[in-house]
Amino acid sequence: xxxxxxxxxxxxxxxxxxxxxxxxxAAGWLVVCGMAMxxxxxxxxxxxxxxxxxxxxxxxxxxLLVPLGLVAALxxxxxxxxxxxxxxxxxxxxxxxxxxxxxxxxxxxxxxxQAGRRHAPDMIALLLVAAGxxxxxxxxxLLPGLxxxxxxxxxxxxxxxxxxxxxxRPFHMADIAAMIAAMSLWARLPAGTAVAxxxxxxVLIVAGxxxxxxxxxxxxxxxxxxxxxxxxxxxxxxxxxTLAGLMLLARADDLPGMASCAQRTYLLVAxxxxxxxxxxxxxxxxxxxxxxxxxxxxxxxxxxxxxxSALFALALLAExxxxxxxxxxxxxxxxxxxxxxxxxxxxxxxxxxxxALAVLGVGWAVRMLALVRxxxxxxxxxxxxxxxxxxxxxxxxxxWAVLGxxxxxxxxxxxxxxxxxxxxxxxxxxxxxxxxxAAVALTAPDGGAALHPxxxxxxAALVGAVVAVVRRLxxxxxxxQVAGWQQGxxxxxxxxxxxxxxxxVGPGNPARMLLDMAxxxxxxxxxxxxxxHGLLLARRLMRSGTGRVADAGCWRRVPGAVVLVVACxxxxxxxxxxx
Length: 579
Description:
69% of the residues lie in helices and 1% in strands. By secondary structure, it is an all-alpha fold. It has one domain (1-43, 55-426, 442-457). It has a two-stranded antiparallel sheet with strand order 1-2. Strand 1 (442-443) and strand 2 (450-451) form a beta hairpin. Helix 15 (306-320) packs antiparallel against helix 17. The longest helix is centred in the middle third of the chain and has 35 residues, at 256-290. This is NADH:quinone oxidoreductase/Mrp antiporter membrane subunit domain-containing protein. It is a multi-pass membrane protein. Keywords: Cell membrane, Membrane, Transmembrane, Transmembrane helix.
């Protein structure tokens, strides 16, 4: 029945010019969400279940169709619809079909020929993952590394600090679908040997911490709002890699409590993707009303578009990790997981944990600076263009659409335990906890600590209400809210932390002011230059052995398809030799 629902979504998901095409497509994907929840809770569907081994796979990862269905229902352009269909194949398919679906999503993300060449290693890694899934016993120790290479383009992972348009693509719905496809690949990773899983677990944890820090830096230095969201989403992808390493480590050391907590945190990350859906819908409307989303041209949207700006700020808070929203719950669970990792006694056993916590802390601090920068410039700054000064909230119909995208992340942030119960409906323990309110809290792996996000949300709501009442009593609001972009600017509001809007220089000032307090500007520039030169030198060293062969005239005419076929044949020969 689930396959029939997906086929229906495929038929109505093709882009069309008719007015009824988009509502029917959204309804089809919402039906898929309902059917996925019914299958997870073991409800009897008409027609029963037809077993088709190797082509379609069941299991808990099928519940990823719930956030994917919401993404696809709100998609507006053909590229996003195509990426959603490919991600659906990656979620419900077997080993080979899921790799095909992930490759489909990569093709949907290739907006330019340069992007296609950049994703070529990911395609080769996906082919190797598809081949290795047929023989997991022979190449099980290689699958985590191959999955890492195959999903780095889907998750937006990179150790580069570049924020140029070629190095950092803008954020759209297709990127959220790509992250769901990557999560499905990581969720069905087969079990390997204890030694291999332990080694790969440590490598993935270290790599995830480094990716988190570089993604936070790219979000801080991004030139426009969509690329800031790309950096924040890259940090979420780094958390997925870290959780995959923790699950491998818990499985190797036979720690069921730690593995269960890592799995629950994994599902919370799937819920956090709903914040990206809200941000994309808000940015689409802002781009239509205020023009290009470049930070050196935007400003004053908090006064000009108060309702839409509040929803966008909600998505930023959830992505950043500030309490009491879902990002803070994920960071809390991740820190508890790292603290419960098995390690040797003494200083030598504590140093890796302390280094991982330090790198995560630095990445989180840089992520907070990125949040302060975009809020101070985009929402609390002053308008810099006439079109930006003339922006206003959209019609009520479009506001309700954005509010509908923000309602799920608000509910998941307040009651994450209910989201976990929804996503783990096939689990007997979770199913028995449905009648009780104990499922609302989040429990640490050791069971010694619990987090109640609902209480934090209630406290934040009370503080916000008090601030609103005091502000209302302190001054009378003007009859017409204006924000002059050149002359006649209003009095500096209390949330403007960077002084008079007429003296605010540009969007780079907040980040530079705070960074100069920690590291001097010349030292920071030298570090970035040396880092870029180091990466360039490493690439040259890797290519030095094959440079002469690659530069030969006969190899320049070999098409990319032939190279992929040769790589697949060599991979199959290696698998047969290992067997």
